[in-house]
Amino acid sequence: MINQLFLSLGGNLGNTREIFEGAYPLIEKKIGKISVYSSIYQTEAWGPIPQADFLNQVILVSTRLAPQACLTEMLAIEKEFGRERKERWGPRTLDLDILYYSDVVIAEADLTVPHPRIAERKFILTPLAEIAPSFQDPLSRKTMLELVDSCTDTSNVNRFA
């Protein structure tokens, strides 16, 4: 069975655009075919640690892998690009997150789907609404456009490419 996986890509260390371009073939090889790419957005860093702005993007991947297998492959891809998990919300070369896995809801110790903070983060909602404006969050039943419109995040999210 093929599932629709919405993944976010983010980073603020190194040449993030080149890192994203290097990650796409690995995502396609290890997880599934990328069918839609959002624009890349430059966004303020989220969290308490002062650091450089991030580049963020959302992609839609068609996958046959189970969610846990997707997570395992994503962590391996992050590591391949030098991701070190030193501090929460710290700078990173590549951050991959599962946002949605079709309309599946998962609550496990190491995996929560939908991503638990989607509705709070304009840097995720803006590219999501760009590529899937009518996709409904399986918990709130709101569309991505409705979520971005009601988001209270006031950080700047600017189209980069």
TrEMBL record:
Top enzyme category: transferase
Alphabetical list of PROSITE patterns matching this protein: HPPK (PS00794)
Tree of life domain: Bacteria
Metabolic or biological pathway: Cofactor biosynthesis; tetrahydrofolate biosynthesis; 2-amino-4-hydroxy-6-hydroxymethyl-7,8-dihydropteridine diphosphate from 7,8-dihydroneopterin triphosphate: step 4/4
UniProt cross-references to CDD domains, sorted A to Z: HPPK
Coiled coil: none
Keywords (A to Z) from UniProt: ATP-binding, Folate biosynthesis, Kinase, Nucleotide-binding, Transferase
Catalytic activity, EC: 2.7.6.3
Keyword S-adenosyl-L-methionine annotated: no
Domain 7,8-dihydro-6-hydroxymethylpterin-pyrophosphokinase: residue ranges: 88-99
MF term (GO), any: 2-amino-4-hydroxy-6-hydroxymethyldihydropteridine diphosphokinase activity
Protein role: Catalyzes the transfer of pyrophosphate from adenosine triphosphate (ATP) to 6-hydroxymethyl-7,8-dihydropterin, an enzymatic step in folate biosynthesis pathway.
Family under the similarity heading: Belongs to the HPPK family.
Name of the protein this chain belongs to: 2-amino-4-hydroxy-6-hydroxymethyldihydropteridine pyrophosphokinase
Source organism: Aquirufa novilacunae
High-level lineage: Bacteria, Pseudomonadati, Bacteroidota, Cytophagia, Cytophagales
